[in-house]
Structures are given as C-alpha cells and as structure tokens.
Amino acid sequence: MDRRNLNSEIAKRQREIAALQTKRRMAESDADYEKSGEVQAKIVELRFFGGLSIEEVAHVLKISPTTVKREWTIAKAWFQRELSREH
Questions:
Q1: CATH number at residue 78
Q2: Which helix (DSSP H) or strand (DSSP E) does residue 71 occupy?
Q3: Cα 76 to the center of its chain, rounded Å
Q4: What would the pLDDT profile of 7-55 be if each residue is shown by its tens digit?
Q5: What domain count does the chain have?
Q6: Owning domain of residue 18
Q7: Residues 6+ apart with CB under 8 A from 1
Q8: DSSP 87
Q9: DSSP 11-49
Q10: How far apart (Å, rounded) are the C-alpha atoms in residues 75 and 86?
Q11: pTM over 0.90, yes/no
C-alpha cells in the first residue's frame, strides 16, 4: 500500500471511530434523559399525589432538596405547556 492509500485508509478509520464515539455519546445522553424523566415522574407522584414536601421527597429519593426543586419546576413547566396546547 502506498503512502496516499495509507493516509486515505487512516482518514476513513478515523471517521468511523468518530461516528462510533458520537453514537455512544448520544446513547449515553438518551440514558441520562430517561433517568431524569424517571426522577421527575417520581417527584410528581410523591409531590402531587402523595402530598410530600420538597424535603420529604428529597429524603425518600435520596437526592438533594435543590435537585427536587429544580426537577419539580421543570415538570410543572412541562405540564403547564402540555395543558395549554390542548386549548
């Protein structure tokens, strides 16, 4: 294999590696998003249906009250947006 063909093959392999790394990062992001969605769902369940306080939810889920507040705010905004779309 001459030098030009070798460089071409190297570039091709580098593109393949970059594509695989991108796919892996996307899969990890999807998993993080799904996990976040699960946490939000549990927070909504405990806050709305269970009547628990921020601190109680944090204790049950073993996360910080700050995280509960943030995820609760995001979940409420999502629900408000979804409900406003129906009208």
A1: 1.10.10.10
A2: helix 65-85
A3: 17
A4: 888 888 888 888 888 777 766 655 655 666 888 889 989 998 899 999 9
A5: 1
A6: 3-85
A7: 9
A8: -
A9: HHHHHHHHHHHHHHHHHHHHHHHHHHHHHHHHHHIIIII
A10: 17
A11: no
